[in-house]
């Protein structure tokens, strides 16, 4: 049977999914990027293949998204490269067709996507501060010695949430420590942190945009039921967390690939990619004072592609590659 | 005498021509690069805007190459850029550079002051007639450069081979730079545009149309705005820039009423000058909406008050006239990857919007999305 692959390589996690013609998830992989996107993609492919009856699957299209979308597209041979905003919107509107607001909070960025009548009409991403994103919550959970999975449950147990300054992650931490030293209970601290982060999100990302239901909340942080509850209280409406909340970017990329590959042609290099030898090298171009750091992506011994330069002269080594990227 | 001026887009070609013909040794300001910004950030107050830092860095680069005279423009109104020339001069002299600075204030405010400063540039031995002749030549070049950029945007949105227009564009700039006499300029006027139009294009495609508004320096300088016109153009978007340097000079030097239609368009939302290009940003957005553009991108230096004010107003314009507006704040911290993601998402947004409008009948909620990518 035909399947379509979506790959979302973000700052913190790497997600791969395989979907069928009806957008059902056949196999999924959620692993840490750990600073090595290429290895993460290779490992992810291996795990993805293990999750399905690989002999009965024909990968008919691949889409990539996330901050390493161009890199992962080159590695696996993608048919389409999409930005995260569009990918998330496609996935959410496919699941909840009349969705009007999408809240997406990932490892290092948070987004707000506004849809009306099925199309994106406005969007915003955090610009100045990463407070409230997954990395910060991770860090706080580690500091309090609570597994991140249980973080939200702690918040729900709180009866008297503490008010915490959520404007900036550094100040939020300072404030939390201050309140903790005054003797507040840990669940009150965590509940306070959740609502501070939600307020911060509404102010910094929301910035007066009209948030109408249905509201879908996705991205890794949606696992945190404390944050979900804080959003519901702040917005005064139910917040829907989809079953595959952490896979939505990858699902969106897969759906887009499905539509892109109607002609039946795919650039996918096959699951063997996970055993190929990819490497990167970089050099500083000194031909002008920009001193661009140009990166070579190598497959075995040949240069697959190159980027990082501002003027574009290094990129032009392979034409069909350019087509994939544009 | 070695003379220089700040880099602003491709306008340096015309200024270089004028000053060389007037008998100066011109130090062409280098393209703003990381080095420029490093110098600028080092000596500028932290809260100053991006144009201030780039210009300061650019001055240091040319002073290091031996420039003795710097020419820059002043300004009027509440935007602090009007004072940049004076502040730059103070900072540079504090660092220890020796030079003289000529700040040209808009002549409509004080014509005598302007002409006095311009005439300083006329050295002994240059005849009046040739002085005016060369001013006109430079003006012709400036107008040609604007026309070239407009043509580039038109052609690039339909080019068949990605990147070819930009290649031809660079050749054309060299041709314009090399034309010296009036006859040569006349000749290159035609050749340049013909050459650009000869780039193979796909005329069956109707590109998306996006207008670019905002503060003049970040709009005009591709090295600061991540080469946004090229980025969009190579993704099949036709870009119209709201500001061209000849318009700016015209409005400041003799055509005071030239912008009246823009200010009038802004009227329902903003009735008074707020400095910089604040009122123009509002007016231009209204005009783009009325002219059927698919979207507007506002480029604003971080901390630019006029653009911050207009940004808040643009939210209402966008709602009222149903035109998507994306604001990009630019400063030394702005990450290119973030800008790229936003621009890509914005293109998708306007593409879907246009598609939805065209296929309003077959609209089936949710499914619409998928179909946008099907073709």
Strand content of chain A: 15-25%
Secondary-structure element sequence of chain B? EHEHHEHEHHHHEHHEHHHEHEHH
Residue share in helices of chain A? 25-40%
Helicity of chain B, as a percent range: 40-55%
Number of helices, counting only DSSP H or I runs of 4 residues or more of chain A:
10
Termini distance of chain B? 60 Å
Please identify, by name, the CATH architecture of the largest domain in chain A. 2-Layer Sandwich
State the assembly state of the protein chains.
heterodimer
Distance between the termini of chain A: 29 Å
What do we call the CATH homologous superfamily of the largest domain in chain A?
ATPase, nucleotide binding domain
- Beta-strand proportion of chain B: 5-15%
Shape call of chain B = globular
Structural class label of chain A: alpha/beta
Biggest interface, chains and residue tallies: A-B, 39 and 37 residues
Number of strands of chain A: 13
Describe this structure in words.
Chain A is of the alpha/beta class and 326 residues long. Chain A has three domains: 2-87 and 249-275, Nucleotidyltransferase, domain 5 (2-Layer Sandwich); 97-241, ATPase, nucleotide binding domain (Nucleotidyltransferase, domain 5, 2-Layer Sandwich); 278-325. Chain A is 36% helix and 24% strand. In chain A, strands 3-2-1-4-5 form a five-stranded mixed β-sheet. Chain A has a five-stranded mixed β-sheet with strand order 8-7-6-9-10, with helices on both faces. A three-stranded antiparallel β-sheet of chain A has the order 11-12-13, with helices on one face. In chain A, α5 crosses α7 (186-206) and α7 (186-206) packs across α8. Mean pLDDT of chain A is 86; it is low at 319-326. By secondary structure, chain B is α/β, with parallel strands linked by helices. Chain B has three domains: 2-123, Rossmann fold; 139-156 and 158-203; 207-374, Rossmann fold. Helices cover 54% and strands 11% of the residues of chain B. Chain B contains 16 helices and eight strands. Chain B has helices spanning 12-21, 34-43, 50-64, 84-95, 111-119, 128-156, 164-178, 182-197, 216-220, 228-233, 245-253, 260-266, 278-290, 305-321, 336-358, 367-374, and strands spanning 2-4, 25-26, 69-73, 100-104, 208-214, 237-241, 295-301, 325-330. In chain B, the strands form two sheets. A four-stranded parallel β-sheet of chain B has the order 2-1-3-4, sandwiched between helices. Chain B has a four-stranded parallel β-sheet with strand order 6-5-7-8, with helices on both faces. The longest helix of chain B is centred in the middle third of the chain and has 29 residues, at 128-156. Chain B is globular, with a radius of gyration of 22 Å. The interface between A and B is large, with 39 and 37 residues.
């Amino acid at each position: 049977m035909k399947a379509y692959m979506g790959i979302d390589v973000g700052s913190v996690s790497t997600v791969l999914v395989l979907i069928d013609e009806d957008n059902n998830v056949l196999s999924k992989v959620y692993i840490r990027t750990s600073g090595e996107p290429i290895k993460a993609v290779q490992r992810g492919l291996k795990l993805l293949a293990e999750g399905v009856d690989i002999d009965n699957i024909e990968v008919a299209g691949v889409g990539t998204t996330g901050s390493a979308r161009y890199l992962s597209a080159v590695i696996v041979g993608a048919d389409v490269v999409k930005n995260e905003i569009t990918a998330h919107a496609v996935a959410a509107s496919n699941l909840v067709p009349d969705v009007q607001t999408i809240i997406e909070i990932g490892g290092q960025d948070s987004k707000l996507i506004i849809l009306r009548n099925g199309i994106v009409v406005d969007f915003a991403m955090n610009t100045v501060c990463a407070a409230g994103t997954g990395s910060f919550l991770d860090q706080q959970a580690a500091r309090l010695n609570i597994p991140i999975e249980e973080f939200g449950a702690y918040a729900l147990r709180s009866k008297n949430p503490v008010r915490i300054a959520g404007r900036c992650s550094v100040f939020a931490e300072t404030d939390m420590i201050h309140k903790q030293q005054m003797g507040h209970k840990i669940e009150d601290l965590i509940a306070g942190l959740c609502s501070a982060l939600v307020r911060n999100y509404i102010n910094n990302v929301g910035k007066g945009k009209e948030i109408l239901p249905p509201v879908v909340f996705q991205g890794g942080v949606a696992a945190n039921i404390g944050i979900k509850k804080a959003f519901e209280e702040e917005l005064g409406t139910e917040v829907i967390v989809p079953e595959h909340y952490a896979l939505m970017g990858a699902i969106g990329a897969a759906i887009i690939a499905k539509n892109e590959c109607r002609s039946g042609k795919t650039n996918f290099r096959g699951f063997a990619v996970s055993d190929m030898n990819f490497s990167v090298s970089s050099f500083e171009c000194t031909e002008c004072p920009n001193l661009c750091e140009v990166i070579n992506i190598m497959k075995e011994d040949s240069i697959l592609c190159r980027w990082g330069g501002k003027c574009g002269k290094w990129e032009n080594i392979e034409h069909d590659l350019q087509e994939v990227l544009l | 005498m070695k003379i220089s001026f700040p880099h602003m887009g491709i306008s340096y070609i015309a200024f270089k021509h004028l000053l060389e013909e007037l008998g100066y040794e011109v130090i062409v300001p280098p393209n703003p690069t990381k080095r420029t910004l490093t110098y600028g950030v080092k000596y500028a107050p932290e809260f100053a805007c991006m144009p201030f830092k780039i210009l300061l860095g650019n001055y240091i680069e040319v002073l290091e190459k031996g420039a003795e005279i710097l020419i820059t423009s002043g300004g009027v109104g509440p935007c602090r850029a009007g004072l940049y020339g004076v502040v730059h001069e103070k900072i540079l002299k504090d660092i220890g550079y020796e030079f003289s600075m000529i700040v040209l204030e808009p002549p409509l405010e004080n014509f005598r002051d302007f002409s006095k400063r311009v005439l300083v540039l006329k050295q002994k031995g240059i005849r009046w007639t040739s002085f005016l002749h060369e001013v006109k030549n430079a003006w012709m070049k400036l107008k040609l450069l604007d026309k070239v950029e407009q043509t580039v945007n038109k052609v690039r949105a339909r080019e068949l081979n990605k990147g070819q227009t930009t290649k031809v564009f660079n050749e054309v700039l060299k041709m314009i730079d090399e034309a010296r006499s009036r006859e040569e300029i006349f000749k290159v006027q035609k050749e340049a545009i013909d050459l650009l139009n000869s780039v193979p294009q796909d005329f069956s495609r109707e590109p998306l149309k996006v207008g670019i508004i905002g503060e003049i320096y970040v709009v005009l300088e591709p090295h600061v705005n991540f080469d946004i016109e090229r980025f969009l153009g190579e993704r099949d978007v036709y870009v119209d820039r709201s500001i061209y340097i000849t318009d700016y000079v015209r409005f400041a030097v003799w055509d005071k009423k030239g912008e009246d239609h823009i200010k009038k368009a802004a009227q329902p939302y903003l009735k008074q000058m707020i400095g910089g290009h604040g009122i123009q940003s509002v007016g231009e957005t209204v005009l783009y909406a009325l002219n059927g553009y698919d979207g507007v991108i506002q480029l604003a230096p971080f901390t630019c008050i006029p653009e911050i004010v207009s940004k808040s107003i643009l939210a209402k314009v966008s709602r009222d006239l149903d035109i998507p507006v994306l604001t990009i704040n630019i400063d030394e911290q702005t990450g290119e990857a973030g800008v790229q993601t936003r621009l890509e998402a914005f293109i998708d947004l306007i593409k879907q919007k246009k598609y939805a409008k065209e296929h309003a009948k077959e609209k089936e909620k949710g499914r619409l999305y998928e179909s946008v990518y099907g073709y």
